[in-house]
Description:
The complex is a heterodimer.
Chain A: H1 6-36, H2 42-59, H3 79-98, H4 105-121, H5 128-160, H6 166-206, H7 218-234, H8 237-246, H9 252-272, H10 278-292, H11 300-328, H12 332-353, H13 367-381
Helix pairs in contact in A: 1-2, 1-3, 1-6, 1-7, 1-8, 1-9, 1-10, 2-6, 2-7, 3-4, 3-11, 3-12, 4-11, 5-9, 5-10, 6-7, 6-9, 9-10, 11-12
Chain B: H1 5-38, H2 41-70
Helix pairs in contact in B: 1-2
Transmembrane segments (chain B): 6-33, 45-70
Protein name (chain B): Secreted protein
Keywords (chain B): Membrane, Transmembrane, Transmembrane helix
Amino acid sequence: MEHITLLLGIVIVTALVFDFTNGFHDTANAMATTISTGALKPKAAVAMSATLNLVGAFLSVEVAKTISGGIINEQGIRVEVIFAALVGAILWNLLTWLLGLPSSSSHALFGGLIGAAVSSAGWSAVNGSTVVTKVLLPAVAAPIVAGLAAMLATRLSYVIGSRTDDRATAKGYRAGSIASAGLVSLAHGTNDAQKTMGIITLALVTGGAIAPGSNPPTWVVVSAGLAIALGTYLGGWRIIRTLGKGLTDLAPQQGFAAQTSAAAAILASSHIGFSLSTTQVCSGAVMGAGLGRKGGVVRWSTATRMFVAWGLTLPAAGLVGAGAEFLTKQGTWGTIITGVLLVSGAGVIWTLSRRRPVTVDNVNDVESESAGVVTTAIAAVIPPPAGPVVTAPAPDRNSGPTAEPTSHATV
Amino acid sequence: MNIDWAALGSVFGVSLVVTVALVGLFTLGVVSLTKKESARGGTAALAVTGAYACFAACAAAVGYGIFLIVS
């Protein structure tokens, strides 16, 4: 076993915790439509997704050489910076989970890294143009690409199948969407578990525990794969509900079209080399499939909340990362305080989530309640303005004839 | 700033074509299978053969997808 200092140990544990949150945050991408259209029972869906994530973690031998893809200058990065970045990413992942909003775990990690790197070495540590090309542009492109594909595919599917009985065909579409969801899960395990392995390996190299350029030790591969699989199995039911039921209502063939377009877009993007966020691809695909059916609706108030969360991911995770780096710079006690703050922050978010838990049993319940969860959660985490009436910051005026019933918080 | 429009365009085109083709094929397969029950004799056999051809093409696409992930 390599020589591992206390700080290095903390970073490894934190990286695995991030991997875990990544797992339960992203279960929805692969399984939300599969669960909401009844293709798989919720427990079976997360079990399948977890297994494929675990398999995916072992499949690829290509190690993530850079964890940030050139967004920050990784030369001479310190272990504390990695730790601070992880703190920012974990807290943002947990907060968006509490609000039931699908947002990109990778972008949260990028945000954390940017914040920590700037706090540590100044703005020169960040490549601004790479931020645009690798984060901002894909965030705009992903939902359009997957959404348009899903919309057209849904239209075509309804045209071809217009003279058949819905009940007779539903079984077929459900089977098809399971296959597509399996591909998404496998791709997720390969990409995102690799990312954690890359982080731990980078930390080990930086801390001098292993030689530069080494492959990740076996225990790193195994623990990263297990952490993401465990997180996936736990199921981020809040986000699954938003993606499966909250954004739009999906019939089995829409779910199939959405999942297939997501799988196609993810594989095309990772193969051609213009990386898109899995979360944003899947959310876009679900909305596209919703719009593709005649009379289909997208609940734009929920979608708007989601877009806002996407926009906030980078700066919010960055601010937390910067703050954490500021603390860890002060020395060992600063690192310990950061760790304590991370644990207590996670604890507070978990406690808040217990007020209105979303579990395997109520994951498919109707949106009106889901909106209640979201608005209550927002009201709970955002200090209410003066006066007893707490209104959700969601743009209610945005609710046209197609939107969900206006949702005032019922605290 | 160096935006790789060509790559973005390819991702867009490939996703669109692959998705529409696969969903179309699969829908054809599913629809043929349900038509089997109303058809008789040769038509039914043709419908089933067509359906399995569609499913085979989709399975091949899934196989290629797994190949892309593994490689």
